[in-house]
């Protein structure tokens, strides 16, 4: 039996929630029976306490452990709170902005990539890159080693609005590859992409490193036609990692694509 995790991103709670979406997500989680649900930021639309409470109610209602990291929409839009206490409301609802999950089959290092003085662009500090390396170094043998952050490392094949990948993507990728990461997941662009690092760059890293960007679970700007709603499901055993994209069809999350990647020995 493979182990599974469900990856949601960009809930944007408080803005244009689709009828029946929460119930469909609960049904999917019941069907898939994941060990963990990972939510990679923009849980709220404006960083307001009522929006965090709504997102937390939805995620807690799934009945499985949840790991959350903040996105650029999860800090206050108002001054001076945006700079004096940017993560206070997120932490009150969800705890650490750099959470770690660890079991015999999975280790996830969540990292905060948000910069309050930038609305869109993300970056990982050297402290956080070091945290990822030390967290993955302690993984149980055979455990899937995952890094989770809001800002994407891999963009969608097409994109009309200006959303750049993680500012220090190359340095981050080098750190993650050296640390033995197998899967780096994010969101932010509200479009699904999955790619293996060696498909793009000549790299001396020995093993498979998959970059997966989840579709948005929410759709805060319905006029943007190029933003499908959905989730990723990760399934793995000792040999393979499968990534299943499930897209919201108005009543359920339908399996749309399944991609297979070998795991390193
Ligand atoms: Fe978003
Ligand atoms: Fe975002």
Structure description:
By secondary structure, the chain is of the alpha/beta class. The chain has a single domain, classed as 4-Layer Sandwich (Purple Acid Phosphatase, chain A, domain 2), CATH 3.60.21. 23% of the residues lie in helices and 25% in strands. The protein has seven helices and twelve strands. Strands 3-2-1-10-11-12 form a six-stranded mixed β-sheet. Helix 2 runs parallel beside helix 4 and helix 5 packs parallel to helix 6. The longest helix has 12 residues. It is globular, with a radius of gyration of 17 Å. It binds fe (ii) ion (2 copies).
Question: Helix count, per DSSP?
Answer: 7
Q: Please report which band the strand proportion falls in: under 5%, 5-15%, 15-25%, 25-35%, 35-45% or over 45%.
A: 15-25%
**Count of distinct strands:** 12
List of distinct ligands in this structure:
fe (ii) ion
Biggest beta sheet summary? 6 strands, mixed
CATH class: Alpha Beta
The number of domains is: 1
Class by helix and strand content?
alpha/beta
How are the strands ordered across the major sheet? 3-2-1-10-11-12
Descriptive keywords:
single chain; 265 residues; six-stranded mixed sheet; 7 helices; globular; binds fe (ii) ion
Produce the secondary structure layout.
Layout: E1 3-8, H1 21-32, E2 36-40, H2 49-60, E3 66-69, H3 81-84, H4 88-94, E4 100-102, E5 106-110, H5 126-137, E6 144-148, H6 169-178, E7 183-186, E8 193-196, H7 197-200, E9 210-213, E10 230-236, E11 240-248, E12 253-262
Parallel strand pairs: 1-2, 2-3, 5-6, 6-7, 7-9
Antiparallel strand pairs: 1-10, 4-5, 8-9, 10-11, 11-12
Helix pairs in contact: 2-4, 5-6
Residues 10, 12, 42, 71, 73, 188, 190 line the site of one fe (ii) ion.
């Amino acid at each position: 039996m493979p182990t599974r995790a469900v990856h949601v991103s960009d809930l944007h709670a408080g803005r244009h929630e689709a009828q029946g979406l929460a119930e469909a997500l609960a049904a999917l989680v019941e069907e898939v029976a994941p060990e963990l649900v990972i939510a990679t930021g923009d849980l709220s639309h404006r960083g307001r306490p009522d929006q965090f409470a709504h997102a937390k109610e939805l995620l807690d209602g799934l009945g499985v452990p949840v790991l959350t990291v903040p996105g650029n929409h999860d800090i206050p839009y108002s001054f001076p709170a945006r700079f004096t206490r940017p993560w206070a409301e997120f932490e009150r609802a969800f705890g650490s902005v750099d959470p770690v999950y660890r079991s015999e089959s999975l280790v996830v290092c969540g990292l905060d990539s948000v910069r309050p003085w930038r609305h869109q662009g993300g970056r990982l500090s050297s402290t956080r890159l070091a945290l990822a390396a030390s967290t993955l170094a302690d993984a149980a043998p055979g455990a899937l080693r995952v890094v989770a952050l809001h800002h994407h490392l891999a963009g969608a094949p097409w994109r009309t609005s200006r959303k750049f990948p993680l500012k220090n993507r190359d340095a981050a990728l080098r750190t993650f590859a050296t640390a033995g990461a197998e899967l780096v997941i994010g969101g932010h662009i509200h479009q699904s992409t999955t790619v293996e690092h060696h498909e793009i760059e000549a790299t001396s890293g020995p093993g498979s490193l998959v970059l997966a960007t989840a579709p948005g679970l929410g759709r805060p700007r319905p006029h943007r036609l190029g933003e499908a709603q959905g989730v990723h499901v990760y399934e793995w055993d000792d040999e393979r990692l499968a990534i299943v994209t499930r897209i919201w069809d108005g009543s359920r999350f339908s399996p749309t694509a399944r991609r297979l990647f070998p795991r390193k020995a």
